[in-house]
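Deliverable D4.2, example record:
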Amino acid sequence: MRGLFGRGLPPLDHLELEASIIHGGYQLHSKKKPPVLAFEPKTLLRQLKRVLRKVGDTPGDQLIGLDAQFRLAVQNAPQRAQNKDGRVRNLIAVDTRGMPEFIVAYMSMEPALEPIHLTDSIGRTIVMPYEQCRTLKGARNIIHNRFRDIGRMWPMISQGAFEIVNEDDVVVTPAAWENTVKPGAVLTMRLSPFADSSVGPDSKTWAEQYMGPPPPPPGMYPPPPGFRPPPVFLEAPRGQAAAAWRLHQAGQGAHAPESSTLAPPPSVVATARLEEWKLGFELDFGGPEPTREKDMDEQTWNKLGRLVAQWTYATDTEFNTDSGTMPWYDDAATARSSSSGSSSSSSDEIVDD
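Output generated by the structure prediction step:
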């Protein structure tokens, strides 16, 4: 106990004090309420002196009558408080008047060291308490929290694409951070084209560490080895999907019961619906396509011009000749022969005259 509390107590008037209430396991059902600790240094010092007057010069004797739960909580109280801001705590006294519901631990805090001044990549000055950023993990968390809400820069910062330089423009690597940076250091942060990869839990890097998949929700545990999940029963198909499923089973030689509890696979239902959609839509012109004038009736021929005008935006869609029929190539050839014969006979008549 002497090692826990120290050999002697320094003058209390110059100490920065802190008190912590440690509850027992059944404090929720207790009628005795814990004291309200004042945050004013003078009031907290007065309460501590009142406790020390009752215990005398041997404050460590207060832990003798405590059970194992309270004793362990008191021993861990300085470390738990130090995790908040990194400042070292020393246990001074324990007030046990609230037992068994609670006890009060009084501690002193070491003087705060000079903070570190960091100018980030966009010109902001960050004052980082040295106790919080003396480790690489603490410095990385402070820097990352300053950029998490900046969407354009956070991807680069999270990948460690930056570097820290001191006043002499010397790069302070992550591996050398804890042994190089001292209280009161003035540092500058600048972006770097290089990003870290393969980041593990203990990697010396500025990149955000991969901590693995998140744990399962409370009350849920992973299945034991060899566990097989039970079969999932889906809603039975209805309507056209049920009929298509029964037809598919009948085609494969299987006889599915009428009240099946398993829905057909999505691919089978999609195929059956596709086959139903195709039925009744096959093109059928009743014979070979019309290619000559004799294969087209008068009604179809009269509509041909309107169809051509609709689909080609043509202005001249009159397909009728002098005889009211379509000018096929055979008719055109006959017309050219007749014209040539007429011209020749006319020329002969002129020559004869």
